[in-house]
Each structure stands twice: as C-alpha cells, then as structure tokens.
Amino acid sequence: MRLAGKVAIVTGGAQGIGRGIALCMAKEGADIAIADLKVEEAAQVADEVKAAGRKAIAVKTDVTKQAEFESLYETVRRELGQIDIVVNNAGSASRPGNPFTNNVEEDWDLVWKINVKSIFFACKAIAPYFIDRKAGTIINIASIAGPMNSPNMPPYSVSKMGVVTFTKIVAKELAAHNVNVNAICPGILWTAFWHETAGRIAKAGGKFAGMTPRQVFEDRVNLLVPMKREQTPEDIGWAAVFLASDQARNITGQALHVDGGVVM
Ligand SMILES: NC(=O)c1ccc[n+]([C@@H]2O[C@H](COP(=O)([O-])OP(=O)(O)OC[C@H]3O[C@@H](n4cnc5c(N)ncnc54)[C@H](O)[C@@H]3O)[C@@H](O)[C@H]2O)c1
Fold it and tell me: What is the extent of the structural domain holding 216?
C-alpha cells in the first residue's frame, strides 16, 4: 500500500492510460478523482476504483480551460479532503503521416492547447496549495514521440518534448517546497489513441494500405520496440505509483521512458 492515505487526481482518466494509472494508484491505497471530458466513462472508472475499496469521484473537466482547474481542485478537496498527487495525462495526437510541410496552423494549435497549455494551467493552479502544504507530487504524461523527433507527427512530437521541458522547469521551481515533478514517456499502447492513429496511417496508403489498425500497430511495435512487445496502461500505472510514492521522494525533474527500449 505505497499510496495509503493519499488522494490523486488523474486527468483523462476515463479510459486508456489514465484509467490504468487510476486503477494502479487505487490498488496501492489512494483515493481517486477522475477528471475528464467524458464524464460517464469517468464515472465507470470511479466505480471500478470504489470496487477496489477506495473512494472515487468523476469530475467533468476540460483541461484546455484554465478556470476549470480551480473548480476541479475545489471539488476534490471538498469531496475527498485533500490533494496529494496530480497526474496530467489528458492529451491528443496530431494527424499522423503529416510531415511539417503538410501541417496547417490548426494542427499546432490543437496539440499545444491540449498537451502543453493544459499542464501549465494544472501546475499553476495546484502550486500554491502544494507550497502551502510543503508536500505534493506532479506527474506529467509525455511520450516517446518527443525524444524520437517524429517527422510524421511534428506538432505532437514537439508538444511532448515541451511537456518534458516544462516538467523540469516546474520541478526546479517547486523543489525547495518538497514537491517532486516528473514526466513519464509511454511507448506504444493499444488504446483509443493508437487505434485512431493506426486507422489514419492505414488510410494514408503506401506500405500500410489494406491493413487493419491492429496490423499497423503490430507492425510499429515490431519495428520500433527492442523488447518486441506493446506497453500496457498498467505498465504506465505502476511507474506512476512509484513516482508518487515515498520511494521516489528524492526523484524530481526526470522523464522516465516506459517503452520497452524504443528511445534507447
Ligand atoms: N497510447 C499511446 O501509445 C501513447 C504513447 C505515448 C503517450 N501517450 C499519451 O498518454 C496520454 C493518454 O493517452 P491514451 O492512449 O490513454 O489516449 P486516449 O485517447 O485513450 O485517452 C485520452 C483521454 O483524455 C481525455 N481528454 C481528451 N481531451 C481532453 C480535455 N480537453 N479535457 C479533459 N480530458 C480530455 C479523453 O476523453 C480520454 O479519456 C496522452 O497524453 C497521450 O498523448 C499515449
């Protein structure tokens, strides 16, 4: 029970990686707030957390809106008593198979808003509370797409490197207040995110023409992952549990690749 007595907020926790993080943290004793646009799916994950014996709430939140963080944190403190861990996981891909020469302004605006600005909002709103308590943990979900410098998804790749850079900046500022701030860079996971991305890659034709999304995904895993297996939401969840636990109290400003060796 590495997170007993703690309260964690997981954005984008209604499905995929966020759901994995929420369930792993609940298994380790944390109460959980799921903050997502998809409030019905978030409520189902909250039910799963409750079934594991923890308290849980679902809070409809749009992470692209700054004001929503103030009300999210207020709701969580009222319903669950405190906030110890903030996991900024909500994010979106940019259109795959689009080199920067094909990008349009909207491609960049979309991921900047959802992947980067949202984390600034989240950190800015929680910082005074964590500083006041002289305790807290922030975990930002970045991606291997940052360090891989992906020419097929430039806005996504740049946004996720931005997440890593901003993680280190916030870690430096909050270190003296006993707040640790780290990023996790997941590898390749079969979530709605990759289902949709692989579908778009197949539609773009070329070597992938006629493949199912799952076949495209498996091709990518075989080509890119030295350990030759896909990652799972639980892989990311257990890494997040570790970073949020006292075992990691001296780890800050790091980007942990959970990717079967892709970036290596
Ligand atoms: N799946 C992968 O292979 C992979 C790899 C590396 C990094 N990531 C990152 O992991 C995170 C989660 O990805 P996933 O694979 O679980 O994706 P997903 O699409 O399955 O889940 C994303 C969740 O975020 C929520 N969300 C989206 N926009 C939101 C907004 N404006 N406000 C609140 N919630 C919002 C969605 O409703 C959804 O529940 C993302 O940041 C993604 O970039 C995913």
Answer: 189-230
Q: Is 73 a catalytic residue?
A: no
Hey, whose CA ends up nearest to atom 43 of ligand 1?
91
Return the ligand 1 atom nearest residue 19 CA.
16
Q: What is the pLDDT along the chain (264 residues), one digit of tens a residue?
A: 999 999 999 999 999 999 999 999 999 999 999 999 999 999 999 999 999 999 999 999 999 999 999 999 999 999 999 999 999 999 999 877 788 999 999 999 999 999 999 999 999 999 999 999 999 999 999 999 999 999 989 999 999 999 999 999 999 999 999 999 999 999 999 999 999 999 988 888 788 999 999 999 999 999 999 999 999 999 999 999 999 999 999 999 999 999 999 999
DSSP state string for the chain = -TTTT-EEEEETTTSHHHHHHHHHHHHTT-EEEEEES-HHHHHHHHHHHHHTT--EEEEE--TT-HHHHHHHHHHHHHHHS---EEEE----PPPTT--GGG--HHHHHHHIIIIIIHHHHHHHHHHHHHHHHT-EEEEEE--TTTTTT-TTSHHHHHHHHHHHHHHHHHHHHHGGGTEEEEEEEE--B-SHHHHHHHHHHHHT-GGGTT--HHHHHHHHHHHH-TT-S-B-HHHHHHHHHHHHSGGGTT--S-EEEESTTS--
- 22 CA from centroid of ligand 1 (Å): 13
Shared-domain flag, residues 149 and 205: no
The structural domain count of the chain equals: 2
Q: Which residues line ligand 1 (CB under 6 A)?
A: 11-12, 14-18, 36-38, 61-64, 89-92, 114, 141, 143, 186, 188-189, 191-194
40 falls within a domain: yes
State whether 83 and 197 are in the same domain: no
Residues 174 and 194 in one domain: no
